Amino acid sequence: MKVDKDFLKLLAPMFIQYFFAGLFCAFVNWGFFYFLNYKLGMYYLYAVVLCFFVSSIVNFILCKIIFKSKEGRKKRTEFAMVILVGAIGLGIELGATAFCVEILGFPNMISKIAGTGVAFIFNYTSKQFYIFSHR
Fold first, then answer.
1. Residues contacting residue 10 through CB under 8 Å, at least 6 positions apart
2. Contact criterion met (CB below 8 Å) for 30 and 109
3. pLDDT above 70 covers what percent of the chain?
4. CA-based diameter of the chain, in Å?
5. Count of CB atoms situated within 10 Å of the CB of 133
6. pTM
């Protein structure tokens, strides 16, 4: 399979931008999780879900800066697609986090970080190729 070098040159900077935006959102997500789970004592899976909503809004705002909207797509439709992709990513993150806690016996925070990492790949790919256009 031949790889288009121009396409890769276009994709690399966007991936780097998305990575740092995602990292920022991850810190928001992890900080909020730490507060809810460790400080308030909320059950870890409930905290994962609440953190998802907060970080999804922050991520949507940052994605609007990094990516451009596809031609003719309404902002509501785009936001709904981001939430749908995020919900699937949430399922992935919940599964990975629960697996790490319940099966592997990892601490909640380490499990949350691992779950976020697994979901990041799905979220980036979905947003890059299905929701937004290439700048």
1. 134, 135
2. yes
3. 84
4. 52
5. 12
6. 0.74
Determine which helix (DSSP H) or strand (DSSP E) holds 98, and give its type and residue range. Answer: helix 75-98
Residue 94 · residue 77 · CB < 8 Å = no
Task: Give the closest residue to 82 by CA, choosing from 95, 72, 71, 70.
Answer: 70
Which two structure tokens, joined as six digits, stand for 8? 């890769």
Question: 95 in the Ramachandran plot: left (φ > 0), alpha (ψ -120 to 50) or beta?
Answer: alpha
Structure tokens at 123: 């979220």
Which single residue is written with the structure tokens 């992935």? 92
* Confidence label for 48 from pLDDT (cuts 50, 70 and 90): very high
Tokens of 96: 């990975």
Q: Enumerate the domain spans of the chain.
A: 5-133
Token pair of 33 as six digits: 């999780």
Question: Which stretches does DSSP call E strand in the chain?
Answer: 68-69, 132-133
Per DSSP (E only), the strands in 1-82 are 68-69
Across residues 27-45, what is the average pLDDT? 95
Cα separation, 20 vs 14, in Å, equals: 10
Q: Alpha-carbon distance 135 to 122, whole Å?
A: 20
